[in-house]
Structure formats: C-alpha cells, structure tokens
Design a protein that fits this description.
Pfam families: ABATE, zf-CGNR. This is Putative RNA-binding Zn ribbon-like protein. It comes from Naumannella cuiyingiana. By secondary structure, the protein is mainly alpha-helical. It has one domain: Jann2411-like fold (Orthogonal Bundle). The chain has a three-stranded mixed sheet with strand order 3-5-4. Strand 4 and strand 5 form a beta hairpin.
Length: 179
C-alpha cells in the first residue's frame, strides 16, 4: 500500500484513503493489515494490535462519515445526524495508549477502534478550530483528497504538486500546444 500523508491532518489523510471518489473509487484499505499500516504511517500508533475484517468495515464506515461531514462543514451546512452521531460515537471509543519504556522512549499502542477514535476526535478538533476556507479539495478533477492550505497566499490548488499538480500542468500544456 502506498499511503499518502499530504493533507496536513490525519483525518483528512484518512478521507483520502479512497481516491478518485465517485469515478474509479480506488481503495487503499483493502485488508486489515493495510489499515494498521496506515495508522503507523500516519503516526497514530507505533505498535498496532491486530485488526479484523470487522475493524476494516468500521474504518470504511467512519471514513464515509468523515467525508460527508467535511462536505457539509465546507458548505456551511449542518452535518447530517447519521454522520454526526457516527463521529461522536467513534471519538469516544478510546485513544491509543501512550507509555514510557524503561529506556524513556515513548510507545503508542492501540486497537483499530482506539485508532479510529483518535482519527474521529482529531477531525472534530479540526472543525472546531479551523476556518473552513483553509480546508480545500484538490483541484484535479479526478482527485478527491482534501488538504489544509497553509500557504502564505492561501492559493494552494493541489493536494500534492508532484502528482496532481504536475499531471494538471502537463494537461494544460498539451492543450495549449494543440490550439
């Protein structure tokens, strides 16, 4: 799995684990191990516990609620009850454990449900503390990755320049050459 962590926020990156939403629907979380590896790559935990197919289904359901809630929040609408309640339930399902080892290193461990709880809670904190105009959808017509625009001019268009931005700039160049 080639996890992409470019959004500037773990919940937004989690939403992006389903790419090209509405067209190809490219799934990055194909099996329970993909989910736990994503949590490691996203810095949610260092040592995940084993995930199950049930955990994977719960993750996909939460991801759909995060996506719908983000859409509603960005439009200035209320989040539909179904998704609001799903986020609230997930955010109260616990958090990964953080412990100090004898060598004073810090280890974060947790179940898939605790990791999902951390993602849901971080999303709720995001919408409580961020202006919706700072969260954007990638301008690539096939990409459905959200991201936080932290650029000075607040004019960032692409989730990632080296993929979506380059692809679109090449497309625009080819269109100009054919005119």
């Amino acid at each position: 799995m080639a996890a992409v962590h470019i959004a500037g926020h773990p919940a937004l990156d989690f939403i992006g684990t389903l790419s090209e939403r509405g067209s190809k629907d490219v799934e990055e979380l194909r099996q329970p191990q993909d989910l736990m590896q994503w949590f490691i790559d996203a810095d949610v935990v260092d040592r995940p516990e084993q995930a199950t197919e049930h955990d994977l289904a719960a993750a996909r359901t939460l991801r759909a609620s995060l996506f719908r809630a983000l859409e509603s929040w960005k439009r200035g609408e209320g989040v539909p009850d179904e998704h609001r309640l799903a986020l609230n339930t997930a955010s109260t399902s616990g958090q990964p454990r953080i412990t100090m080892q004898p060598d004073q290193s810090i280890v974060r461990e947790g179940t898939a449900q605790q990791c999902l709880g951390a993602i849901a809670a971080s999303f709720l904190q995001l919408i409580a503390s961020t202006d919706p105009s700072q969260v954007r959808w990638c301008a690539d017509r096939t990409c459905t990755h959200p991201f936080i625009d932290r650029s000075r001019a607040q004019r960032r268009r692409w989730c990632e320049m080296k993929s979506c931005g380059t692809r679109n700039k090449q497309r625009e160049l080819r269109a100009r050459k054919t005119d």
